[in-house]
Design brief:
- With about 375 residues, the protein is α+β, with helices and mostly antiparallel strands.
- Helix content is about 45%, strand content about 15%.
- Helix 2 runs antiparallel to helix 9, helix 6 packs parallel to helix 10 and helix 9 packs across helix 11.
- It is globular and about 55 Å long.
Amino acid sequence: MAAPFTIGIEEEFQMVDGQTGQLCSHIHTVLEKAQSILGEQIKAEMLQSMVEINSDIMPDIPTAREEMRMLRAKLAQLLEEEGLALISAGTHPAALWQNECRSEYVRYAELEDELQDVARSILIFGQHVHIGVENQETAVTLMNQVRTWLPHLLAISANSPFWAGRYTGLKSYRSVVWKPFPRSGVPEVFPSWSDFDNYVQALIKTGCIDNGKRIWWDIRPHPFFSTIEFRIFDMPATIDDTIAIAAICQALVAKLTWLNKNNLWAPMLSCHFIEENKWHAMRSGLDAEIIDFAQGRRINMRDSISELLDFVDEVVDDLGSRQELNYLRKLLEDPRGTGADHQLAVYQETGNMDAVIQFLMQQTMQGIPIKALSRL
């Protein structure tokens, strides 16, 4: 490929009691123990029951799979020694945000002071994917086009049907909790990097934000690096889901880059149209019916994602991600579909929220070689 399309992945996990699966506020203890093992690849977030792991810059999907497996294994083993476990999901099925403790860092105290209960209630967990591009100008150009497929990407990751012990009726309730945050949602089209940077600098000069990372859109050009950052995802169910999501992001950026170099451009929809489809993805996941506004037709989400996979197919072998894109095709054929669908199936079969929590704990460690690690 002409551009490297490097990959970076951030994962936000729930830390829970290893027996009951209830959230545990242990981030400061875990960080102290983990620094010598994971270094800068582990960090705190707003609430003490969340732990984030960050990859290095990775050249391809096979490398990403191996690194993220080992990071999760190391983290899980550290937590196991503390009687804790991990859950990978967009929300905890039963927890109440009112019972959670904020992390003891100045930036989170400032955020709470600014946003009040909007910040305090952010008991949600997501995955971010960074794809390297040639420069920041290219990042803005590609962001404008990639926006069209944000609802599709959310549908693939949907994994938060429960909130505060209730079935919400939505596949991605995490998206609802996140919605009140300022500077969130689908960005508008920016004609150039200069236009985007002028917007950021205007907010900084007027005291609205202190830097560009306070812009929390579903996708953004990174304010400091030449990457596109996809931020729309629920924390997906399994490591296979995590890597497949990274693969489709990389493939989409690579395909659009090739088209643009050949003076071909994907449609750039109004953010209002994209938000319309995003709602349906939040509500129904892979079972949604959405609008293809470019062609003026209604289409079900599974068929539309299948068309997306066909669209990127010619770059997949060059990227080395055929296995991951085939995984997504199989996901479309599975009636249980995404993590949200699997959670709902367990709940419908058992009528028991604790059974869902235990299922999530087990599912999070599928394919993770924790027993193969030497004692840390």
